[in-house]
Amino acid sequence: MSALDAAAPRAREGRHAAWLELFFDLVFVAFAAQLSHGLHGDPGLPEFAVFLGLYFPPWWMWCNLMVSANLFEDDSARRRFLMLFAMLCLAAMAAAVPEADSTRGAVYALGYAGTRLVLLGLWWPATRFPEPHRVPRWRPLSYCLASGLLWAASAAVPSPWQYVVWAVLIAAEMALLLTARGRGVPGRLNAGHLVERIGLFVIIVFGESVLSLITSTDHVWTADAGVVAVLGFVLLAALWWSYFDFGSTAAEQVLGRAEGVRAYLMARDIGGFLHYFVTAGILCMAAGLATAVEESGHAHLAGGPAWALAGGLALYHAAHAAIALRFGRSPVAVAVWAVPGIGVPVAVALAHQVLAPWLVVLLLAAEAIAHLLYARTKAARLRPPAASSTDDPRAAS
């Protein structure tokens, strides 16, 4: 079998993440730590803007590489070398994050340019697929090669104009993607693999939150720090429970029913655009929780960590509300949980000057638990009753 045959789309029911994909994700463990660490302490609007700006390129590249692995089940040595080179490029970007807005911007830009060339190498064989799976050559040449060359050129642009160039390049890429509307996708996306990969990334950012709690408690070994850390763990556990019991399950059902271009558009919007905000919210919470533990002995939590923690939770719920609406849920049904899910954290952040760190985390944990209980109650109410042994088995279907 040739490499082209191995990469060609075919039916892959019940497919799971490959070892190469899991190894590749390790670089994002470091990326999550670097980005979250930039929000430790008392961040202001510039720090939040830098965080969101530096997070999008690696997140978007991860999405692109995930889709290529989803469409092309190829375990050739060629693909392995390409993915390992992408890991090196992303590792360089992660190392540049602390000073990417100043002295290390060129390294960040060149690292991202390298990942665009990897993407070109992964998609170029699809330009030789038989019809109807063939990809027009202009698409990888414009989306991957031209973008990579422009990112490389941006390394020579001095700040702050360098960041303007990055913003323009990202906007142009999004415009190209949105206008394509699924044309040129060689085959059908595997919904189960897609949802599993996104879930694994969510686990990575939850893992950064847990690690932040542990390391901060180690630095501030007091009873107050222990209380805040335990409450923070309860908050994260409730979010994990609701995400993987309800969010990922609903996504797999909706994406599994979608066909053709609609499946691609749903995957792009939910897995790409909206999960950027889901994961960004969790990373903000990781930073806020770390600072809350470190400031556990203070009379109140400073504004920066309060907004990182409570604002991160509000962003997390807002992104899930947008996902539910994209699924086709009723705006009224979504508002029932989305309004308190966003409103309570925002109110907590606004009142941070009169709330002790432990109380801030307690209120947010209580909201997350209430959200989980509502979701479980709603699911139990909608679940059809099981048929008894004497019933016609067709009645339960």
From TrEMBL:
InterPro entries: Low_temperature_requirement_A
Keyword terms, alphabetized: Membrane, Transmembrane, Transmembrane helix
Entry-linked PANTHER family: BLL5714 PROTEIN
A Pfam family recorded for this sequence: LtrA
Source organism, top-level taxon: Bacteria
Record's keyword annotation contains Membrane: yes
Keyword Transmembrane included in the entry's annotation: yes
Transmembrane segments: 18-36, 48-69, 81-100, 106-126, 138-157, 163-182, 194-214, 220-241, 273-293, 305-325, 332-350, 356-375
Protein name: Low temperature requirement protein A
